[in-house]
Design a protein that fits this description.
The chain has about 325 residues and is of the alpha/beta class. The protein is about 35% helix and about 15% strand. It contains 14 helices and 13 strands. The strands form three sheets. The chain has a nine-stranded mixed sheet. The two termini are about 20 Å apart.
Length: about 325
Amino acid sequence: SWVAPSHNSYIVGDQLTGRSTREAYMRQLLQGCRHVEIDCWDQFQLRSCKTVPVVTHGHTLCTVESFDAVASAIARTAFVTSDLPVILSLEMHCKPERQHAIALALLSNLGERLLSCDDIEGSSLSPEALRGKVLCKGKVKAVLAAVREARSSADVAETGEAGRTVSERERASVASSETLYVRHLTLRTVPADDFLAGLSHEYGFALPITSIGEERLGREIGLAAPRAEALDEGSVLRGMAGSVHALQRKTAEQLLRVYPLGLRFAGKNLDPLVCWRAGAQHVALNLGQHPDLAAQLHYALFEDTGGYVRKPEEMVDGRGWA
């Protein structure tokens, strides 16, 4: 399914000097978003935030909001307009002690609605089965390191391969040392290179997801490098052949999130049609400013859908990959 997400969900205004606010999350969730982004930082710009993690756009002039205020706002509005699952994309820049504080804030505000890895083990993972639940997305650095180590230590002479998968014993060892924060990362990030190379299975994640920028997506489907404005129609047409079907095959098996080019300081959006056509389920748009054409397309697609739209069968069963 295509899912209604947003990019830098906390910002109202531009990406350099905008205002970080809990109200942005409330508005977007009430408008039907099911996947919001939270940039978590150790910040000391506000006296009231000296000992707690905050939400802001790092290395910019954007204002700061406390993480607990954001978690509380999400808890109040997550399931008002839809009971389909909500995804919190946690871009983590905090030290371990504040990661623990983030986990406690989520548990305090969301309670049983917040899923852990134990909750999803052996369970149905469809949107219907996860109604009323919140899933967190993020990187699990210990698993990423274990996969890299497994590859580097492989005996090429014996296996004839450049690497090997992480064993169940190794995964269990990593899982046993996971922190409270990591245990609640139910959607776990696979690096873009491994996703595109078909190596996601090596991580053993129940719900793998990959995030790639619009520029990388453009290269994969044969588009010219995107500019800071929306792609023109000619560029779209040039990208609609050949390699786009290869990406559709990959997204039939794993979730893919596409985010805007970093140079879009004014908050202008990428063309979501290109990304949806390539199979990306989560096309993150800047929704915190006056809606441009891309945002209007987003709202039109997800109007009265609960935030999830089923892809055409031809995009997932192979009939459209000719």
